[in-house]
Design brief:
Layout (H helix, E strand, L loop, with lengths): L4 H5 L6 E7 L7 E9 L2 E10 L7 H18 L19 E2 L5 E6 L4 E2 L7 H18 L17 H14 L9 H9 L2 H12 L5 E3 L8 E4 L5 E4 L6 E3 L1 H12 L16 H15 L5 H27 L12 H18 L1 H11 L1
Antiparallel strand pairs: 1-2, 2-3, 3-5, 4-5, 6-8, 7-10, 8-9
Helix pairs in contact: 3-7, 3-8, 4-9, 6-9, 7-8, 7-9, 8-11, 9-10, 9-11
Length: 358
């Protein structure tokens, strides 16, 4: 697929369309870099076809993103430290084409790169620092609360309930081939209980969070390796700081790919320490005692939750995450649960590292 020329033309600031290629490996949207020419020369833009089956209220979603981009831009010391969202000629931050697809455009951040997996300690330090800074800078976002783009996105117990329903209905006849994964998922349910009780009690503050802090959602400078900015803002909404830290832990401490059927790489303790230190520097002192207490187990929580989500999607017929071969979501689930077992065994060690830094 390519970006239709008439879609590019809807954003007149981009200039004349000269080329297009696919970008990244996202599970949800279709993303492209588009080359354009104008009187100022050649420039690149990032076009995304928004998945409106997942995000059903596009105006509210894009209102969130517009507010966040403006707020972060006002605090950025460099133009590459915040995303710049372009508007159509009538000032709308998205365009709906004749086929009903929704498109948005960001100005491409030059000399940037991402890390998929297997990041170094220096890279994860910068990623942790960037996400911490992102959370700190959004703490004073003015105006009404952000629209909840996916309600209950990190309600882990609700994810387990959804898995239970998927087992009961078994719409695609896949339960029989996933008994080992289901047994582990339901036996591990207590992982979610303690965290959800803390949230319900109010001990964990509600903050504006990113909610999808995979390593490749932070741009790094190609030359220096320094963190630039956080991208993929669709799930930015009220949430818990531990979700963002835990999702980074899940990715940073294992060199295995997300769909590695073996996932036998040892947990990288140096990466955990580097990620934690960068994150603490980034948030710059605004964590509460309860948030500090939860850092050591945050990776286990988010790894468990994602494994449950992959397993649920597999049973439901792969309706949320993109797949490239049959059974990929089940393989993804197995990989997450393999990493989870290692994380659970190391939580006391993680706790010691947190205490020393604290």
């Amino acid at each position: 697929m390519e970006v239709p020329s008439r879609v590019v033309a809807a954003f007149s600031e981009t200039g004349r369309y000269t080329g297009c290629r696919s970008l990244g490996h996202g599970h949800i949207h279709d993303t492209f870099t588009v080359d354009c020419e104008s009187s100022g020369g050649c420039e690149k833009f990032v076009f995304q076809r928004i998945n409106h089956q997942v995000f059903k209220n596009i105006p509210s979603l894009m209102s969130n993103i517009s507010r966040i981009c403006r707020h972060l831009s006002s605090k950025a010391v460099d133009v590459r430290h915040a995303l710049e969202l372009l508007s159509t000629d009538d000032g709308c931050p998205y365009h709906q084409d004749h086929e009903g697809n929704y498109w948005r455009v960001y100005r491409y951040i030059e000399s940037s790169r991402t890390v998929e997996h297997g990041a170094t300690a220096a890279e994860v330090y910068e990623i942790g620092r960037s996400v911490g800074r992102f959370l700190r800078n959004l703490d004073d976002l003015p105006g009404e609360p952000l629209y909840q783009t996916i309600p209950g996105f990190h309600d882990t117990l609700a994810r387990v309930t959804a898995l239970t329903k998927a087992v009961e209905t078994d719409t695609h006849g896949r339960v029989a081939g996933a008994h080992a994964e289901l047994d582990f998922a339901f036996a591990s349910r207590p992982i979610a209980l303690t965290h959800d009780m803390l949230l319900a009690s109010g001990r964990l503050p509600v903050r504006i969070t990113h909610n999808d802090t995979k390593l490749n959602n932070v741009l790094l400078d190609q030359k220096t390796g320094a963190g630039l900015c956080v991208i993929d803002l669709d799930t930015c909404m009220n949430g818990c700081l531990l979700h963002d830290f835990g999702d980074m832990v899940r990715c940073a401490v294992s060199a295995s790919a997300e769909d590695d059927p073996e996932a036998l790489q040892p947990i990288d303790m140096d990466n955990f320490s580097a990620l934690l230190e960068g994150f603490v520097v980034g948030v710059d002192g605004f964590m509460t005692p309860a948030e500090w207490d939860g850092l050591a187990s945050a990776g286990s929580l988010m790894t468990y939750e994602l494994g449950v989500r992959f397993l649920t999607d597999y049973l439901q017929g792969d309706v949320y995450f993109k797949t490239h071969y049959p059974g990929q979501n089940l393989v993804r689930c197995r990989a997450q649960f393999s990493v989870l077992k290692d994380l659970l065994a190391l939580e006391d060690t993680f706790r010691d590292i947190v205490m020393r830094l604290r």
